Amino acid sequence: MTELRELQEVIDVCSQLKAVACCDFVGLAIQNKVGPDVRWHYAIGNLNDKYKRITVRFGKGIAGKIISSGSPMMMTDFPHDILGKMTDYPIALAEKLVSSYAVPIFFNHVPKGVLLVGKREKYSFSEEEQEKVKASALSLEQILKKHLL
Amino acid sequence: MERIQPKEQISSYIIQSQEEEIKRISEELHEGVGQNLYSILTGLQYVKSGVGEPNMKNYLEEMEQLIEKTIQEIRLLSVELHPPVLTTLGLLPAVKSYLTLYTSTFGILVDLESTGEEKVLPEKNSIAVFRVCQEALTNIVKYADTSNVKMSFIWTEDKLEITIIDFGNGFQLEEYTDDNYASGIAAMKERMLLTGGKCLISSKIGEGTSIELSLPL
Questions:
Q1: Total domain count for chain B?
Q2: Which residues belong to any copy of the GAF domain (chain A) (predicted)?
């Protein structure tokens, strides 16, 4: 797989999203071409490179829950408004995200990735911001289709 | 007349009962649920090989992947609860296996070094030390804000010394008197005491935290 972080179109979509959603962090997790592992392939606004080593666990944390359910998810005050343990949310811990909103990225109608925006303060993402994240996820689906399928 | 058990004996009994239950659940997940899912996966692969219709084949492939992910998660959950290598191969291999999972879950790199000849520990002590290491590493994820940890095992004739240094934020021990963190630290010390060992914690703001465990062999 071409490294997604090297794709200019991916970088552009994520950078624009970071600006319009006024967030601190944007991360893109995608399932590997071979095997069931989902990894964070690209991030901007990151504080460190932990995201590169994190493998998303199916059904765990914000990204894992999105991949397993196929539905968007929002956290407004991590670690106070979560299901499960705080260690079930590695990307929030690694990047000190207090609020985040994430949506699935579909390939052939199956959730294969996650686009996540996050802030390092308490926040509730507005309907308008949520729509922007969804629109960016749709653009990424189109861009990534030719690289992943 | 009812005989009052010493506090240590009661704590030890409660911990041991909990550990036995955790081990049972872990084995049930691995040997029971995991094996059944694997049988379902094999059956599904057999069905898929006989299906020609492309849409149905795709659907079966997605089902296959979903079961694979579930098997993987069950395996990780089981290892997290009670690593089977702790019983079969001992403390050091169990810690190594846990560190692989730790890095892939939290992105924190752990540099592990072991010097001296590795000894076989009684299972009760292996579990206690393993749990204390797990707690220390979990605290690092939650509070230390670091990407690198150094862990060393030093085996001598009469004792095992383990040091965990996180190079993170550090903290002032006096400030943590009432919260979960303080309880976690107290539990680590208590567990080491019950094995006849010791747990020393030192920390400096801006320089990180160091945990020194010592266990007589």
A1: 2
A2: 7-134
